[in-house]
UniProtKB/TrEMBL annotation:
One of its GO terms (molecular function) is NADP binding. This is Homoserine dehydrogenase. NADPH binds at residue 113. It comes from the Bacteria. The active site is at residue 213. CDD domains: ACT_HSDH-Hom. Its EC number is 1.1.1.3.
Length: 445
């Protein structure tokens, strides 16, 4: 019986350069060395790790690796390689080193969503022109195979909507706050300790990491290059314990979602809305069950219907799994020959601004407890053509002469964001309103 890689014995080893030896890089190096035989069998050529670019040769390392592999000369290392794995993070020198690798004919594997969201189109074009592969499965939802299914398995379908929990750190924080009552700072510190968070966790907490992933997901799903400025981004730093508690009472859960969906602006322009923001979901929604640092991407496609991809979106080993999958795939292409995968940009749809988004909203208000208050509020909703789905009122009776007040939680039908914003603005101006405690978007109701 012949193996698919009859040339296995003959093909010369492929030289692999690794840039970065942090959480992910150290695990990639370990697996490349430890699983060298099985990787060679699957690839048809040995994947020979020729060097690891680091900042300091003597830095203490949690994963023991042969000292002779370390170098501080990333540039020279890249020029010798057939395959380059970029796990430095950040824009520079990652971008220049990837450009050098491509110019020298190397295939590149990267997990750097920040770079790909900012500079992806230029890099893909350079790679296409050079006939080499630039792969980045690890950049979105870590270990979960999601980019390849969107690009390849669903290439005969039409994706209409993508909803993703694509940042493990924020999902971990929100889940800890929801399930254990942990405070924000403690949950964040634990996510950092577990290796989920970015070097600067602001990128996680403020939604920038998820926004970069949303741009990549939207680009592949809608065959159009979306970049970071196309993504509306709100993080979770304004989510309070009270918001979590109120959501719980209403049978909802707060998740930071990356959303990319086909939509239409008020004036009929077809486009795609790409956004990241805290979102209320019913507790029975499949994404509500995604706990801890896990990620999941929920896709709606015209023919496939609903699909959900679930798994570990962060951490050294899970991310290394996706990196190595890309590496083996790129190496096989070198062994077998043939063209690499290319991005398609045939969609050319417009990115819609956040003011044109249509979704449901949950608005928390505190109001004075007096006759006619609800009528004033509902009148404003009616004037702005925002339809109310449910309204819940809790009266708090004042103690020791304090006046009583009411807490209102109003959930709307789908409404246009700009109309909702004007509604909330007018409500704030009502003398009977003592506070707008939260305005959160709702999906899945
Ligand atoms: N940690 C995770 O769970 C995931 C990380 N990623 C991405 O993978 C990449 C790597 O992430 P981590 O390993 O977590 O980061 P890290 O911060 O643990 O590792 C990066 C390493 O690169 C080194 N480095 C930075 N600039 C360098 C330079 N100029 N020369 C030599 N070394 C340099 C740093 O000293 C550090 O050791 C990032 O792009 C990140 O966004 C993607 C998915 C999940
Ligand atoms: N910091 C990111 C790591 C993976 O991309 C996260 O928390 O998900
Ligand atoms: Na992935």
């Amino acid at each position: 019986m012949t193996t698919p890689f009859a040339s296995e014995q003959e093909h010369q080893p492929l030289k692999v350069a690794l840039l970065g030896c942090g959480n992910v890089g150290s695990q990639v190096a370990r697996i490349l060395l430890q699983d060298a035989d099985s990787l060679a069998a699957r690839t048809g050529a040995r994947l020979e790790l020729i060097g690891i670019a680091v900042r300091r040769l003597e830095a203490p390392r949690e994963v023991p690796l042969p000292a002779e592999l370390f170098t501080t000369d990333a540039e020279s290392l890249v020029k010798e390689a057939d395959l380059v794995i970029e796990l430095l993070g950040g824009i520079e020198p990652a971008r220049s080193l990837i450009q050098t690798a491509i110019a020298h004919g190397a295939c590149v594997v990267s997990a750097n969503k920040a770079l790909l969201a900012a500079e992806g189109p230029a890099l893909y074009e350079q790679a296409d022109a050079a006939g080499v592969q630039l792969s980045y499965e690890a950049a979105v939802a870590g270990a979960i195979p999601i980019l390849r299914p969107i690009r390849d398995s669903l290439s005969g379908d039409k994706i209409t909507r993508v909803l993703g929990i694509v940042n493990g750190t924020t999902n971990y924080i929100l889940d800890q706050m929801d399930s254990t009552g942990a405070d924000f700072a403690t949950a964040l510190a634990e996510a950092q300790r577990l290796g989920y968070a970015e070097a600067d966790p602001t990128a996680d907490v403020e939604g920038h990491d998820a926004a970069a992933k949303a741009a990549i997901l939207a680009s592949l799903s809608f065959h159009t290059r979306f970049a970071l400025p196309d993504v509306h981004c709100e993080g979770i730093s304004s989510i309070s314990a009270a918001d979590i508690e109120a959501a719980k009472e209403a049978g909802l859960v707060i998740k930071l979602l990356a959303i990319a969906e086909k939509s239409q602006s008020a004036d009929g322009l077809a486009g795609v809305s790409v956004r990241v923001h805290p979102t209320l979901l019913p507790r029975e929604h499949p994404l509500a069950a995604v706990r801890g640092a896990f990620n999941a991407v929920f896709i709606e496609a015209e023919y496939a219907g609903e699909l959900m991809f679930y798994g570990q979106g962060a951490g050294g080993n899970p991310t290394a799994s996706a990196v190595l999958g890309d590496l083996v795939s790129a190496a096989r292409r070198i062994v077998l020959g043939g063209p690499g995968r290319t991005e398609t940009t045939t969609g050319q749809v417009a990115a819609l601004g956040i003011d044109q988004v249509q979704t449901s909203y949950c608005i928390g208000l505190t109001v004075t407890d007096q006759p006619g208050v609800l009528a004033q509020i509902t009148q404003i909703f009616a004037t702005h053509e925002v339809s109310i789905e449910t309204m819940r009122q809790t009266i708090h009776h004042g103690e020791a002469g304090e006046p009583s007040y009411a807490e209102l939680r109003i959930v709307t039908h789908r409404a246009v964001e700009s109309a909702l914003a004007s509604t909330v603005q007018k409500i704030r101006e009502l003398p009977v309103i003592t506070g707008v405690t939260s305005v959160l978007r709702v999906e899945g109701i």
